[in-house]
User: What shape does this take?
Amino acid sequence: MNFNKKILATFCLAAMAGVADAGTISITPATATALQAGGATSPTPHAVVFQQAASGETTNNFQGRLIYDSTRLTATIASGATACTIPTAGTVVVVTQNFATPVLANGTVCEIAFTSVAAAPLGVTNLDFQFNAGLGDGCLDAAAATAACTINDATVEIINAPLVPLTLSYAPAPGALGAFASGVIGSTATQNIVATAAGNSGTASLACTATAGFTVTPSLNFAAAGPQNVAVGCTYGAAAANGSVTCTEIDGDTATPGAARTWTATCPAGSVAPVNPTITTVTPIGAFAMPTGTIGQTVTRAIEFTAAGGAGSGSATIACTAAAPATVSPANQTITGSALAQNVVVSLPLTSAAQGPFAVSCAVTGGNPATTRTDTFNVTAAAGSAFVAPSVVPATSTWSMFALIALMVGFGVALVGFRRNH
Assistant: This one.
């Protein structure tokens, strides 16, 4: 940068001109720790901070280098990248950019985030801020005279993570595992109990058993933090099943022989596997003659269907259409499981002339796998006959009427005689 050249060019002149009052350059925090194997420093990040002298401050800008051990630490610029760069591992070059005021303001120049290298040895490592005169480093006042800055360095201690024995937690917690989702008889389902190990030392283990009707992962071993699944399974039957799963836990806070962790489980009754009914058309396909009748009479005839082999939610459909003036009922039907198929009734009003053929088409879908066929019936009807009124036939003849009168007279005489005698 041009500023680097200016400092380099003026540093030698400043050495002959005397030393001016200057402030303090500090690396903060002064002390920090970082866990071995990639831990960030705590606190983080580190800041390069300039603080003016109590009086007579003259520093206009400064340039210097923060030296760190790259075999133990890695660095990234967290903020202030215009003032701070990392041209090579182990060195952060710091060059302030104050061209507006005679005296550099108090405050943070930049921030650097440090983390430990994976194989960093334990112990203290320095964050050392230096001036390299040969590279033009130093504090200068506005007249390019040397200003005697005070430097406060920092340290980072690489430490071991505190040893925390592995302990186990569960989701769901011991208690009720909850019901399995519904399923088909004979199929299986699985739920997971998530066992999570926390800590960084020792081991943990689970040994699990399940009651009849259920299965479970028999054992799990933990050598490091993280989750593993305890798989609980059930096979759906005709009736619901209740049971439990028990895991013996051994971990950092539960010594041998361990402690029992128990979950109750419910496997609901399974449903019948869906099987589509197979639809058979009993009525011969093709010619379809309607019954005879009189003119104006609507005659009917059924197309017979049967359904067989259906189960559960399996289904079949029959959808029929008819060319006018013929009609069908029901036009559409769905047969589910073991239900029966309805016959489709064809209706046709008779006229004085023969009729047809009128097409009645039935799309039949069923079977396993489901297939669709179309049954077509050619409906015909003979001409209706004319209506003939019936002849009136007398109920009795003349002689029958005389006999009936005589019988009534005889009955009356007998009744009078009976009353006189009593």
User: Anything to note?
Assistant: The chain is about 10% helix and 50% strand.
